[in-house]
Amino acid sequence: MNEYKHILTAVDLTEESHLVAQRACALQRANANAKLSCLHVIEPLSLAYGGDIPMDLSNIQEQIQETAKLHLAEFAKTLNIQTQDQHLIFGRPETEIHTLANQIGADLIVVGSHGRHGLALLLGSTANGVLHGAPCDVLAVRVGN
Ligand code: AMP
User: Fold this and answer.
1) Where do runs of H (alpha helix) occur along the chain?
2) Is the pLDDT of residue 48 over 80?
3) Which residue's C-alpha comes closest to atom 1 of ligand 1?
4) Ligand 1 centre distance from Cα of residue 58 (Å)
5) Helix, strand or coil for residue 31?
6) Which of 4, 74, 80, 140 would bridge with 108, disulfide CB 3.0–4.6 Å?
């Protein structure tokens, strides 16, 4: 069987991200030290709330971005992922995960089965969305239950 060459792990930066990361690292080692990249997607407040909140959300959005940047860098450090392979992108998680996987030529995407959105579902909504139309293999690491 062909080895994976470039693994993309998408993390929501919750506690469970470490379980997802451990599996991605194990796969990296098992595949002759494949390249490992990580991605966190920031969902714009305007997408979530649209015009429902009559106030300027840009300051809050900036703070969210700064915090996410720090957390992603800390997280990536534990995985030995270089700065250029750490991706912080605005948008909808499943769409951005697909787009980045295409851009960097990932041949495996690793996500958690459940995260913030999907606790009540059999398979979290992002994991489910990533499976549909994925440009490569997808592994949903079982977390949460
Ligand atoms: P959920 O859809 O919230 O149940 O999340 C399931 C999995 O999708 C998480 O464990 C992550 O691997 C991935 N995921 C969810 N939200 C994001 C996000 N904002 N950025 C990157 N990956 C995410």
Assistant:
1) 17-30, 45-49, 58-78, 93-104, 125-131
2) no
3) 115
4) 23
5) coil
6) 4
